[in-house]
Amino acid sequence: MSNTRGPQLSYVSERTGSLGCLGWFIVILSGFFTVLLFPITICYCLKIVQEYERAVIFRLGRIIDKKPKGPGIFFILPCTDSLVKVDLRIISFDIPPQEILTKDSVTVSVDGVVYFRVSDPIASVANVTNANYSTRLLAQTTLRNVLGTKNLAEVLSDREGIAHSMQSNLDEATDNWGIKVERVEIKDVKLPHQLQRAMAAEAEAAREARAKVIAAEGEMNASRALKEASLVIAESPSALQLRYLQTLSTIAAEKNSTIIFPLPMDVISHFMRK
């Protein structure tokens, strides 16, 4: 980026050449009348530039200095000099929603926001008619070009990468205009209603499939635990009696009006032997 700015500044400096004999005569004449009518011309000669501004001064149509004036107070010749104030603060604007066809042939509506500032006041005045408006138009076309190379999945998941790519492209394109793009953000991605319903149905089906898999895994783990418990009870018959008593205490804690007591296995086996 620095390589492209060098020829640009030299081009501007070439334009700030000599005024010529006629030009100097007009400047001297303007200075003479300014001094002669000093109490009246003081309001026209005195200019103030704020801290966040810079002034590009033209004298007979030529930029008189290689760098802008300001901040502070300075004098100009009222008849031959004219100035253009440039705001150096960061400017933000919204990119209107753009109907974009992605790489996989899906139409989406995308909008964003761009933050930029003037880094070279002379270039922003001498090299482009309206730097602000030109940057707005370029941001819209850049958004279309960048998203046209992305799939729908990339547009939805990789917003940060898209914003970074847009910032790099915009910064490179606006370098000759004296503009520095600070940040680009993707605000919203709107999908067609039919595609939204299809994606919602797909997501719901995927969630149901995961739920069934989790339920099946739970049943398998429970069956394994029951099998291990049965083996332990078979090895120790007294464990079955303890489990029986524990079940009775659990039923009694529920405040039920009717409690069913199953017959112990040893009583049933006594009658079965007879």
From TrEMBL:
One Gene Ontology CC term in the entry: plasma membrane
InterPro entries: Band-7_stomatin-like, Band_7, Band_7/SPFH_dom_sf, Band_7/stomatin-like_CS, Stomatin_HflK_fam
Pfam families with a match to the protein in the record: Band_7
Keywords for the protein's UniProt record, in alphabetical order: Membrane, Transmembrane, Transmembrane helix
Keyword Nucleus attached: no
Keyword RNA-binding listed: no
Band domain ranges (all copies): 44-203
Family statement drawn from the similarity comment of this UniProt entry: Belongs to the band 7/mec-2 family.
Record's protein name: Stomatin (EPB72)-like 3b
Record organism: Oryzias latipes (Japanese rice fish)
Gene that encodes the chain: LOC101162729
